[in-house]
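Human:
I keep going back and forth on a fold encoding question. Comparing notes only helps if you start from a blank page. Show me how you would write down a chain together with its backbone fold. Write it directly below this note and I will take it from there.

Assistant:
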Amino acid sequence: MAISHSELPHSANRKLILAGQIAFFPTGILTTLLGPMLSILIARWSMNDTQAGNLFLVQFLASLVGVQLSGVLLSRWGFRPAFLLGLLMMAAGVSTLYLGPLWLGLVSVATYGFGIGLIVPTDNLLIAEIGAHSSATPSADSTATVSKAGAVSLLNFFWGVGAVFCSLMVAWTAAHKLLPFFLGANAVFLVGLAVSMRNLPFPPAETAADRSSSSSWRELVKSPAIWLFATVFLLYPGAETSVGGWIGSYVSRLGPRGQAIASMMPAFFWSALTLGRALGTAFLRHVSEREVLRTGYATAAAGIALMLWSPSLAGVIVGALITGFSYATLYPITVARLSERFGVAARSIGAVMFSLASIGPALLPWLVGVVSHSTGSLRAGLLLPLSATVILFLIHLVDW
C-alpha cells in the first residue's frame, strides 16, 4: 500500500517545501519578465501597443496549455513529471528570447509560458497539500485553511522576490548591455534546479480511492461556490498581471521623469506585493481571511484609481505600492481555500481553475493594449483591471 505523503518525515516535507520555494523564484522572474522588458522589446521589434499586448496573450495562452497538461500529470503520475518538465521548458524559452526577430521572441515567450503553466499550479497545490503538515511550530488554535494560506503565501513571497529581482536586473543589465547574460543565467539556474530536484520525495499520484471519493463535475457545477472560485481565478491574475505588466509603459508616457524610472516601476509594485506576502503568514493568524479578502480588494481598487488619476509621479508610485500590498495575500488565500474545500480532488479541479488563471492574464493585459491603441489612452486601458478588482470586491461581500 502506498504511503501517504503526510506520513513521511517532516524533514522530507521541509526539503520539498524549500525546493518548491526556490523554484518559485525564477518562476516569478519569468512570469513578470515582459513587464520591465516591454519598452525594450517595443523598441527592438518596432511594435505598437496592440502588438506588444500580443506578447502577453502568447505567454498566457501557452501557460493555459501547460496548466491543462499539469492536471493530467498530477492526477496520473503525481507532481514530479510536471515539476521537472516545467523547469526545463522555462529554461528553453528564456534562453532564446533576445536572440532574434519578433517571431523567435514569440516562440520563446510561448515556450517559457508553457513551462510556467506547468509549474504554477503544481507548486501551489503541492505546498497547499503538504504545507500545513510541515510547519515547525504550528499554533494550537490555527485552522487548516489558515495554515495552508500561510504556507501558500510564503511560497508566493518567493515568487514576488523573483518579480522584484527581475525588474531590478532588467533595468541594470539593459543599462550595461548585459541583458542576454541575465536571461542565459536564468536558463542555467533552471536546468540546475531540475537536476537537483529529480530525486526528491514528491507526493504520489491520486489513487483509485481518491478518484472515487471525489465529487463529480456534474455535482460540483451545481454549487455556487465553484462558479465564484472560477470568477476569482479568472479575474484576479488578469488584474494583477495588467497592473504589473503595463505600469512601466504607463509611467514612461508621463514625461521625462517618468521615462527615467519606467523600467523600475514594476519593482515598486512587486516589492509591495512581496512585502505583503512576507507578512502574510503571521498576519493571517490574527485576522479573518474573509476580512483580508474584502479589505484587500477594496484598497487595491483605491490604489489603482490613485495611480490612474494622480496628477503627480509620486502619486502614481504611491498608488502602485498600495495596489501591490493590497493584492499580496488574496491569491494565496484563494488557492488555500480551494485545497481545503476539495482536498486531493483539488489536483484535478485545479487544472480548470488554474486554466482560468491563465486565461485572465492572457486576455486582460491584451485588452488593455487594444483599448489603449484604439483610444490613444493607456489610462483608458487600465480601467479594465480597476473594474475587475471592483467586481472581485463585490463577490467577496458574500460569504461562500
Observations:
- The chain is about 80% helix and 0% strand.
- The chain has one domain: 10-201+213-395.
- Residues 135-142 have pLDDT under 50 and may be disordered.
- The domain at 10-201+213-395 is CATH 1.20.1250.20 (Growth Hormone; Chain: A;).
